[in-house]
Amino acid sequence: MGVKREQSNSNTNGHVDSNSNGHMPVLRVGIIGCGEISQVAHIPTINFLSHRFQTTYLCDISEQSLQHCAGRVLGGPPKVTCSVEELCTSPDVDVVIIANADAYHVEHGILALKNDKYCMIEKPASICFRDIDRLIEAEKVSKGRVLIGTMRRYAHAFLDAVQEVGGMEKIIYGRVRDIIGPNSDFVEQSCTYPRRFSDFTEADVQDRAGRESDIFEQALTNEFEVPWTPESQTMLQLLGGLGTHDLSAMREIFGMPERVEGAFLQFPGIWSVIFRYKGFPVTYESGITNVPQFDAHIEVYSPDKIVRVDFDTPYVKGLPVTMTIRERIGTASFQERKIRKTYEDPYTLELLEFYDCVINDRVPKTSVCDARNDVELIKMVLRSGFGA
């Protein structure tokens, strides 16, 4: 990759310190997909982290989107292309961010790995076992690694909550909640002014639709053995999209559940799932309403302490993730502490972790193998909700 990893060392926070000369390699980034998430999060964050990253290549099927995003890159104009292979084989790219349509995540991840590139893939990596296993196999024979973009798991408050929960003598209940307003409301107020373009061909539309249909059939019919209906397809997409953040974080803080006790799945509306763990339940409730608020949190109960992590919309930079601890003190006293450790947003922290993994050749915790467990959870939920 042209990156001198020996120049760097990890500090106690997991980030990379410079060598004795103070030099840090700047990773050259190729971004596949110039849509909303790249415009709102990835390109601006890389610009802010110019001492660690430089966007050198952009790829999209839309020429207008390429030109628009190229103008937003700091540090010199990037090369642009409609060819994923051109980007992945370029000597001007050290690492790849894959942020295009979900149906292409695995194919383009495999191409990056074949060229020994580390890559960050926006969630979900895949919503079927067949494809995520292909990505796992590709990683085994590559010098590259994959980080899946479930960025909430890199928030400092979440990491602190994991430690707090790990110190609990007994968990008696958990709640995972993610009920939010229309995403467009938050995006429009993010001051990033993303634009959408439609200069792609009918062949592009048909190719994406065919790939998605194949994935839905593979997951629902062949692997999950769930009736393939408009309702089950919609829930598969929602659980693989919005739900991946919640399910992935739930696994880190509680582990894998024993089974699903029940699931009420509907959209539009709110869906709810009860997971059984050894000795306690965890409820998961999620959905999208018309109220423009972001209500996402994880709350864990023990007999004497309650730990809660609150997430805000990641599309508005600088909104903190907080941890609140409520506990019994002494014989009858009550204490509540709200901790805001940093204003660093999860996207920034995720990219810093990605940098450290590349420089120090580490496997990220949000790896492909880790993400495979999310597919297992989605399977459990859909089988329960649709009577399989």
UniProtKB/TrEMBL annotation:
Gfo/Idh/MocA-like oxidoreductase N-terminal domain ranges (all copies): 27-148
Chain residue ranges for the region called Disordered: 1-21
UniProt feature, compositional bias: Polar residues: 8-21
One annotated GO biological process: NADPH regeneration
Family annotation (SUPFAM superfamilies): Glyceraldehyde-3-phosphate dehydrogenase-like, C-terminal domain, NAD(P)-binding Rossmann-fold domains
GO MF annotation, one: oxidoreductase activity
One Pfam family named in its UniProt record: GFO_IDH_MocA
GO CC entries: cytoplasm
The name this protein goes by in its record: Gfo/Idh/MocA-like oxidoreductase N-terminal domain-containing protein
